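Quick one from the shared queue. A colleague (R.T.) flagged Tetratricopeptide repeat protein as missing a structural entry in our internal table.

Convert sequence to structure tokens.
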Amino acid sequence: MIKSSKSILIAILMMAVCSFGFSQSGNEEAINRAKMKYSKSIQYNDFAIAKDAIYDLMVLEPNNSAYLDSLAYMYFEFQQYASAALVSRDALNRNSNNRLMLQIGAKSLEELGALDQSLKMYERLYSLSDDAFVLFEIIQKQYDLKKYDDAMINSELLLGKPAVERNNVYVKNEAEEEIEAPFKAVVYNVQGMIARAQGNEEAAKQYFNKALKLAPNYALAKENLNPSEK
């Protein structure tokens, strides 16, 4: 549900470096040199060198947790999920309420197939944020882990959130094109999947029809309603 981009990566990392401030370690010259190396490498899209510069800065200023945030984000953006998960874990050891690191850690663990650990991180993030999109991620993980009762309870909770009523999300139509659809339609589709997994086919079809009433071109809901036509 959440998309990232290189432009976001550059903005976050540049803001981080600019906010690090002056060194208190007596290594100010080396730190400034590493920051310049980082800045220039970002300017020329050389992210390998930028990552190297972050490691230099981490050695020079080991107590500055902002470097860990930047490094985790960089690993995540370039789909190095194992490294992103490890760095985000270390960052969370310093600040367990770091929402960005919880998000990166949860998504990285999901990509690595560690769904139980990913679910725990999403649950922690939701306890801090009360974010409807995070709750949707929790429901998806619970479904994947066959925790169907928990997933259905949370889906009902999600439907009561204002964000579900006012937000659209991107889904695909039958031509594999991205289209906008009401968030509520996606939740109904997931409820249908949960009901089917629980053995309640009649309820499942009702949920899929609700989804299609809101988003008639929602391909996944159509496929779920008529799985024999796939």
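The chain has 13 helices and two strands.
Confidence is low (pLDDT under 50) at residues 1-5.
Added to the table.
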